[in-house]
Specification:
The complex is a heterodimer.
Chain A lengths: L3 E4 L2 E5 L4 E7 L6 E6 L5 E7 L5 E4 L2 E5 L5 E6 L8 E11 L2 E6 L3 E6 L1
Parallel strand pairs in A: 2-11
Antiparallel strand pairs in A: 1-3, 3-8, 4-5, 4-9, 6-7, 7-8, 9-10, 9-11
Chain B lengths: L3 E4 L2 E4 L4 E8 L5 E7 L6 E7 L2 E5 L6 E7 L2 E7 L7 E8 L8 E2 L3 E5 L1
Parallel strand pairs in B: 2-11
Antiparallel strand pairs in B: 1-3, 3-8, 4-5, 4-9, 5-6, 7-8, 9-10, 9-11
């Protein structure tokens, strides 16, 4: 089964600072998703990466999938309190007509004023 | 409408009770999912329905019984649960197969006494 390890486990940054979260897979990634979760709430979709070397940006968040498709990073520029939450990477696998997501261990981000 | 709704938001039940969780989406998605999330852990897949048929059952105990009465609705029937089943239950939907992202509902916080 596929395992995803995220680092760091938790992160405290000062507002305005940049940060990077990493997601490393035990197997080749065929679809990598990044989600954000506020405590006890649903997951908010951030980005999806499929091709090796792919990079996507939305507002101040950039995600990359490395060429070998076994590692992804999420970079936040000039962090804000609204970025606080739990960041989860998810690997997609296909079974017949259904797909499933296996999530990483999560990274808890706090942004201080 | 890009929303997945879940009811109830909170549920407290005894081990002998029978209750149901409800999930609804009107995005025309033909794949729907149930995930279970324990505190400080990532979501874990329980069931996947594709075109209203059960496609994946991740060896979930029979005290959890999913049902997909139509393409917009997904239920999770609960019976004779154990205290360790207390968790956040998340529903999600997506296009089936190699579709796009999974859209998540806000979850139902279940407590089993």
């Amino acid at each position: 089964s596929q395992e995803l390890e995220q680092s760091p486990q938790s992160l405290i940054v000062q507002e305005g600072k940049n940060l990077t979260i990493n997601c490393t897979s035990s197997k080749t990634l065929y679809g990598l998703y990044w989600y954000k979760q506020k405590y006890g709430e649903g997951l908010i979709f951030l980005m999806m990466l499929q091709k090796g070397g792919e990079e996507k940006s939305h507002e101040k968040i950039t995600a990359k999938l490395d060429e070998k498709k076994q590692q992804s990073s999420l970079h936040i520029t000039a962090s804000q309190p609204s970025h606080a939450g739990i960041y989860l990477c998810g690997a997609r696998s296909i079974t017949g007509t259904a797909s499933k997501l296996t999530f990483g261990t999560g990274t808890r981000l706090q942004v201080t004023l | 409408d890009t929303e997945v709704t879940q009811t109830p938001k909170h549920l407290v039940m005894g081990m002998t009770n029978k209750k149901s969780l409800k999930c609804e989406q009107h995005m025309g998605h033909r794949a729907m999912y149930w995930y279970k999330q324990k505190a400080k852990k990532p979501p874990e897949l329980m069931f996947v329905y594709s075109y209203e048929k059960l496609s994946i059952n991740e060896s979930v105990p029979s005290r959890f019984s999913p049902e997909c009465p139509n393409s917009s609705l997904l239920n999770l029937h609960l019976h004779a649960l154990q205290p360790e089943d207390s968790a956040l239950y998340l529903c999600a939907s997506s296009r089936p197969g190699q579709g796009g992202e999974q859209f998540f509902g806000p979850g139902t916080r279940l407590t089993v006494l």
